[in-house]
Known about the structure:
By secondary structure, the chain is of the alpha+beta class.
Amino acid sequence: MTRKLFTDEPYLQECEAEVVEVNDRNGIVLDRTVFYATGGGQPGDSGVMVLASGEEIAIATTVYNAGRSKIVHVPATPSPLPAPGEKVRLKLDWARRHAHMRIHTGLHLLCAVLDYPVTGGSIGKGKGRLDFDIPEAGLDKEEIASKLNALIAADLPVSSRWISDEELDARPKLVKTMSVQPPRGAGRVRLISVEGCDLQPCGGTHVARTGEIGRLTVPKIEKKGGKNRRVRIAFAK
């Protein structure tokens, strides 16, 4: 299995690693990584892999293998590939990752402002969205943005901890997503806590305090079906 350093150290920007394998699509699997793999609506990280020779491979994205036990680093262009056992160094595109962390944490605040079941979501460049199961419309963009920015200004601490699968099963209301359940089978599930505001299972990367998010806007609210409302957030310009 690839050791996911980003789970407990989201601010770690570089690491040394060893090549485990190169798959038939030239994806590179390492024994450990700081690169977040695509999942939970958050894009996979990009950056640079430096080979023992000093040559660099631009990494376009990072994904899980079919069994989700290994993380695959996908080169942006055809490149000289490392051999199994070779030592490499990873350098994260930190500006891109940090923006994802800020938006992802902002989406947790959106869950606190709109306490409805979540039917979907995604994170993009400087923006993100959640879909909510809301039977009636009438959501106000300015009101939502005001509540979000109040939570950001409060500079609340954000932390993570682990609970067992059994504990999560005993507290089903922790799971706010309707379509995607937290992965079980490893014996434990990671919870993200925004102090006094939000608590839910999540495998993504987040900032340490809400003040780090920066001001957000709510540029658009869309009706997606009879009960589905899509709420978009973005960094204020």
